[in-house]
Structures are given as structure tokens and as C-alpha cells.
Amino acid sequence: LECVESLPLDIQRNASLLREMDTQCQEALKEIDDVYEKYKSENDPVQKKRLQQHLQRALINSQELGDEKIQIVTQMLEMVENRARQMETHSQCFQDLSENEKPLEKAKIESCQPERSSRRPRRQRTSESRDLCHIANGIDDCDDQPPKEKRSKSSKKKKRSKAKQEREVSPVEFAIDPNEPTYCLCNQVSYGEMIGCDNEQCPIEWFHFSCVGLTYKPKGKWYCPKCRGDNEKTMDKCTDKSKKDRRSR
Q1: pLDDT, tens digit, for every residue of 216-234?
Q2: 111 with 193, same domain?
Q3: Is 202 annotated to bind ligand?
Q4: Is 133 annotated as contributing to ligand binding?
């Protein structure tokens, strides 16, 4: 239930971010139109070259905004798919649990039947002892107190033993699907937000955000720590350089 309850908030947050990116994209397109109009009406070669460079930067910026919008939509789709997969797994576990509880209920019913059948001979023996008492003593009032006490004591013992058996019945363990595939460095099943390694030869393929130190999906290609290897410092430098270029814009 927790994974389903948090889904609307995650979708709402990504939808708000998507609207913000769409506003920025519309502003970038308007800037492109304005610069292009100035470029057509400009006759000075130097100024025309500057406008051309400005137009190129605006086009690159609009393309980056479009890529980020695609990433947000992809992240929303992956989030919904992960939640649906988790709900399907949990539903199968509950079905297996209910099927395992049926044999236990049947065993309890069968165990109660011999106890009820075993009480009848005792009542018969009690009535027989009462009849013998009448015949031997020739009186109507025979002392039935000892058999009653014996019967009450035996019934109390049976009730206590039955309650003890019910307490000792161990609960059925939560069924786990052994065929569920595992991913990531932690070798666990799929949950939460995940990212795929762009190396086609990667043996693991998918990783949890928290296990690889990510809070959102990065732009461009991404490689896992195992596939990164000695190229990690080079990739980090490229990432820092791209961040500085975006800030300067």
C-alpha cells in the first residue's frame, strides 16, 4: 500500500516539473523567432554573424529542454511500471498465502472430531456406574459426585491441551517468488527508480538510484561503476564541463 500511496505525489511532482520545462521551451522558441527575424533584416555582415551564433545557441538550448522533457516522461512511465510490477508480485504472494491456510483449517476440523467422539464412552460408563450403584445399594440417591469431578477434570485438561496446540501452530511464512529476477550491485529485485547502463555488454544492466548515488536520471549516456572502470575520472570531467557550459548560458 505504501508504494501505491506515494505514486500520486511522485506523478504530481514530475508533472509540475514537466510544465516548468514546457514554459522554458516556449520561451526558447520565441527567442529563436525574434533572432531569426533580426537576422533576415540585418545587412551588416559582422552583426549578421553574431545573430547567427545567437540563433545556434538558442536552438541548442531548445533541443536540451526537449531532451529533458522526454526524460521526465520516461521517468514517469518507469515509475508506474515499477509500481504495477510490485503490486502484481504482492498479489501473487497473498494468493499463495491463502492457499496455504486452507490445509491448516481442514487439519483443525479433523483434529476436533476425535475429541467429540471420545467423550461418549465416558458418559456411558458414568451412567453404567450410576445404575450399578442403584442396584447394589437399593437406594434412589447414588453419590454421583466423583464421576462428575473426574469428567470435569478430564474436559478441562482437554481444553487446555487444545488451546496449547492452537498457540503452537506456527504462522505460514510469507511466500516469495523464487523466479523474480534480481538487479543492481545489491542483487535485489526491482523497486523504486532505476537506471539502465548504456554498455550493451553490462552483465547487470539495471541499477537502483540509491545504490549508485543518483537522485535523478542524468542526461546523455550513463555507465555503471563496473563498466566505467578507469574512465571514471574522464567521465566526471566531461560532466563538470557540461554543467559549466549550461551555467554560462
Answers
A1: 888 888 889 888 874 554 4
A2: no
A3: yes
A4: no
